[in-house]
Amino acid sequence: MRDAAPTTIYLKDYTPFGFTVDDVHLTFDLSPNATRVTSRITFSPNPDAADHTFFLHGEELKLIRASIDGQPVLPNVTDKGLTCDVPNAPFVWEAEVEVDPAGNTALEGLYMSNGMYCTQCEAEGFRKITYYPDRPDVMSTFTVRINGTEKVMLSNGNPTDQGDGFAEWHDPWPKPAYLFALVAGDLINHPDRFTTKSGKDVELNIWVRPGDEGKCAFGMEALKKSMTWDEDVYGREYDLDVFNIVAVDDFNMGAMENKGLNIFNSSCVLASPETSTDDNFERIEAIIAHEYFHNWTGNRITCRDWFQLCLKEGLTVFRDAQFTADMRSEPVKRIRDVIDLRGRQFPEDNGPLSHPVRPESFVEINNFYTATVYEKGAELIGMLKTLVGDEAYAKALDLYFDRHDGDAATIEDWLQVFADATGRDLSQFKRWYSQAGTPRVAVSEDYSEGIYTLTLKQSTPATPGQDTKQPQVIPVAVGLLGPNGDEVAETRILELTEAEQSFTFDGLAAKPTPSILRGFSAPVILEHDTSSAQRAFLLSHDTDPFNRWDAGRSLARETLLTMITDGAAPSGAYLDGVQAVLRDDTLDPAYRALMLGLPGQSELAAALHDGGTTPDPQAIWSATETLRQAQAQHMQDLLPRLHGEAQVSAPYLPDADQSGRRALGSAALSLITRLDGGALAAAEYAKADNMTLQLSALGCLIRAGKGEAELQAFYDQWKDDRLVIDKWFGLQVSLADPEHTATVAQTLTQHADFNWKNPNRFRAVFGALAMNHAGFHHASGTAYELLAEWLIQLDPVNPQTTARMCSAFQTWRRYDEGCQTLIGAQLDRIAATPQLSRDVTEMITRIRG
Ligand code: PHE
Ligand code: ZN
């Protein structure tokens, strides 16, 4: 588990494995502390490889015996794997190993969660199950036999046989080991069926712990919708007789796309109106779709090596976003994704952890399942589609599936498909994959004699290991509005390829107002010095829903920044402009709810830092509170009507329509609470009959410093529902007053239900602590200290979840010397911990810079 000198792996060092694997047979004899895994694998020398050293990965395995072609062998075993002399011809390798699932707290490999066996193999967990070439470019069919006493015993592919104490599975599709999965436990299924467009009947199951069977129906509907959508939109059919989903309580990530046997964090699949919020439902629908879509983009076509992770993740995130846009509202989905990108990916791309969408080196691959690889990776797909057009995109994707089905592919393969399908030279576009950092696009305008000229200038700040940047291809969607608000030039895609470039629009009767970067056509930061009058004009007239929203957002940002730096009063242009949009009943309530949102406090800190001011988290918090109060007062008369939107008389449905109405109603309730001290929220809490309304009312009360009784009542009501209790933990920390955030978090860690080894529970408290900007960055430093203490405690138990949480410190260089000294001390303290995992060592080293 520990490395004396962690080694760095480089993309440029890729070489193929010396052998191909023709067939894998695995037998599991299950036992909590001593599971036996017997493997029988046929290897052949790989004619494409230069090096024929026979090295199999293997970690934390007890080797019982090994043989080649039936003859016992004594391999040379280290803590990383084994080597052995092998024939220069096809041979059969057999090995028996012992593993300890019950003792596996890292939740990687074969482990136990609430008495049930399950696996997690991506990225490099299969080597904790048996000796194997654990790399994605080695693909094989798998046959699995499970011997055990569990009622349900599952693996990948199709069931071939089962009886008393055993089950057998065969997966006919060659796959890399990271897609292997096994589940065994006393589970209950929620069954259904699906007929593919070519008429194949598929059995569908969602497997859960007894007691959770009532929370599967929504996930099942989402699965069937995903299957239909992938057929309709991408022409992709499912390819096995069964598709199984299993809910697991202890899981490091959201979910995993194992072939035919997706394993989900229970928080990402279980849903009911009483226990899940509208946002939970939307997220569950998206994750089910995401994992299902991986069957083609990830499984049928996989990655040659882990540097190509964005090949499957960027594309699959892009596909699930398209799906959500189709199922719900396209502009609302786009706005939410951009909020997320700015909130999570931009800080990463502009700090010490900045790395390209396709990294060139890593120490621990688990540290690269990042917002950059996933979300910026998805933005790159969106830009490609914008640049080549929808038809060419569809043609390129067909070619990709045709050409690379069954392959372990690279970004070069992906781009070649687009080049071949469209005749376009994509060499400059490729820089998006290799250059880290968020490009800035500065805008200047000129208008004379009917000709309007837009000059765009791009630059990307230096990032770790990349001092200078080359210009990238940036698709900038632009439309023009005339003085009366009419659109005088429809959306046009400007292709910015040089450092600086001008674009002209002619035949204009008057100087237009530009609407730039419509639909957020590229993941960049736009620098455009315009008056707040111009922004307010766009807020009331822009025909592009994204930019209309973003005009409001930039007005809010601007007023908050001047409130913080100059002590200015909240801007009337902002308050009036937003109020006018909110009054417009023809607009989607979900869209109006988004209009009421403010830029996050961490985003404001980044903007201040970018502009040369050291951010003061307390001042940012106060300004945000002041603006919220001003909004409440300004819209006093309108708020009851907005709140009334949430009063849905029809039975609860987590669809776009109803959830949009509840989102608007809840946003209004939180403003009303600032005026009435919580009277309405308390009444709403008392009558809430779904989790969305219950939680939003509770949140209002906590924020108002009230709600102690409700918090207790909520706990008593839900103490047996672990997913709801996660919310109970998280809400208290995320809404705590900055003065008390660390104390609230610290007190919750003493609670009997604080099972810190469960990643969901740990993240509920510490994820919320890191997200409470002013509370986390309180000048006392107690929050930093608390987080560091718990990261040190969790690391030996679960390095992967610990390492992910270290990113809470990634923005530390933005803040004043006092904060930097305090955080620096905690980073040193973590780094000095004996036996620190490779995962956390890499994160802390990069963050310290
Ligand atoms: N591949 C998973 C997904 O994006 C994420 C994951 C990575 C899950 C590593 C577990 C471990 O769908
Ligand atoms: Zn994925």
Automatic annotation (TrEMBL):
One of its GO terms (biological process) is proteolysis. The keyword Zinc applies. Keywords: Aminopeptidase, Hydrolase, Metal-binding, Metalloprotease, Protease, Zinc. The keyword Hydrolase applies. Its EC number is 3.4.11.2. It is an enzyme of class 3 (hydrolase). This is Aminopeptidase N.
